[in-house]
Amino acid sequence: MILLGSTGSIGVNALAIAKQFALSVDTLVAGKNIALLNEQLRHFSPKHVVVMEEADISKVNHPHVRAGDKAILEAIENSPSPKVVNALVGFAGFRPTLKALECGKEVALANKESLVVGGAFVDTSKIVPIDSEHFGLWYLNHTTRPIEKMIITASGGAFRDWSCDRIANATLEDALKHPNWSMGRKITIDSASMVNKLFELLEARWLFGVGNYDAVIETQSLIHALIAYVDGSTTAHFAKADMKLPIAYALMGEVTEALLERIDLAAIGSLEFRKITPDRYPIWAIKDDLLQNPQRGVIVNAANEVAIERFVRGEITFGTLSSFILETYDHFHQTPSSLEEIFSLDEEVRVYVRGLG
After folding, report:
1. Number of C-beta neighbours around residue 278 at 10 A
2. Burial group, residue 191, by CB count within 10 angstroms (0-12, 13-18, 19+)
3. Mean pLDDT score, 156-164
4. What is the number of domains present in the chain?
5. CA-CA distances (angstroms) from residue 247 to 11, 101, 241, 254?
6. Do residue 35 and residue 104 come from a single domain?
7. Which of 270, 287, 269, 289 minimizes the C-alpha distance to 278?
8. What is the pLDDT of residues 5-16, one digit of tens each?
9. Which of 55, 132, 233, 286 has a CA positioned 20 to 30 A from the CA of residue 255?
10. Are residues 189 and 206 in the same domain?
11. Percent share of the chain, pLDDT over 70
């Protein structure tokens, strides 16, 4: 495989699967955690390595190291590996997805932004999702029974138990206190704002086609997806929250041995579900419109990435983060009709949000 984002949580789990099932690793692409990257190099001996910064090349214990976005695309093009695991964060993962598909490779996709911003231009027949929610939908969706709705679950993020009037002034430290697990900074903030779940609904729309999609909070993160059928019945995908399961299916197609500890329903005792509402998660106000106009995802993504940058720098409050996204969504009404227009609109939106005050 070619693994983009090897030192993040998805990358670490992908390498755990590679080790368990003796899968070869051709190329590793990593960010700034050079110490972990060097440890990975000792165990997997890839032929090629790419890092983000030129200054880090000399710190990497490998004879073939390059740096930068162009090097990632060239590594994908030159590698004989038929499979790319894209676990890069944000819009930066979009071009690598396009390049992998252009080269005829299958993409095990954790970079949801690839579909959020450009789903209309991505051949989803070559995409295998490794988000647990989309994996859950895929796992359940092996039937000809007519479907009424596909539902994914949310943890509720850092502020699910806060009073709504406190959330607007929450600090960065507050936003990073996820109730269920430890993740990267951006996805944890996205979880707190519910942008992450909005993006996952949009991703599901591109993966599974036009349909009825929704999300619900399940506080223990034991159910990842549900499918409601026209006949009134509903099925649910239960599993411990461990990314190794969807990654293993994405890399091997089928899994015939236990990867996770089975859930003991009696030990759980009960489950709690909550509705996602705009009073706690203001971004949810555009959910229906965005699903009806999915090409506008590039607007929301660009606004969100810049708003998060400003929130992390302390320029805006957490409440302002969502209000900037909503204001930007109301300001821009373009529907990109080409890849060039996606990249152009992305930059235009970023300039706009940087100027909001």
Report:
1. 14
2. buried
3. 95
4. 3
5. 10, 19, 12, 11
6. yes
7. 287
8. 999 989 999 999
9. 233
10. yes
11. 100
Q: Which amino acid is at 125?
A: S
State the pairing for strand pair 147-154/213-218. Answer: parallel
For residues 188 and 270, membership in a common domain is answered with yes
Same-domain check for residues 49 and 76: yes
Q: Verify that 213 and 284 share a domain, yes or no.
A: yes
What Å distances lie between residue 190 and 53, 159, 202, 307, CA to CA? 25, 12, 14, 11
Alpha helices in 45-112 (DSSP H): 69-78, 94-102
Q: Are residues 72 and 84 in the same domain?
A: yes
**HSE of 30, CA atoms in CB hemisphere, 13 A:** 26
The pTM assigned to this predicted structure is 0.92
Helix (H) / strand (E) containing 224: strand 223-229
Starting at the earlier edge strand, list the strands of the sheet with 127-129: 65-67, 48-51, 27-30, 2-4, 83-86, 106-109, 127-129
**Domain boundaries, position 354:** 293-357
Q: Examine the domain organization and report whether 124 and 225 are in the same domain.
A: no
- Over the stretch 222-247, which tens digit does the pLDDT of each residue have? 999 999 999 999 999 999 888 899 99
Poorest-confidence range of 100-114, 178-192, 228-242, 334-348? 178-192
Average pLDDT over residues 139-146: 89
Q: Among residues 129, 146, 172, which one ends one of the domains?
A: 129
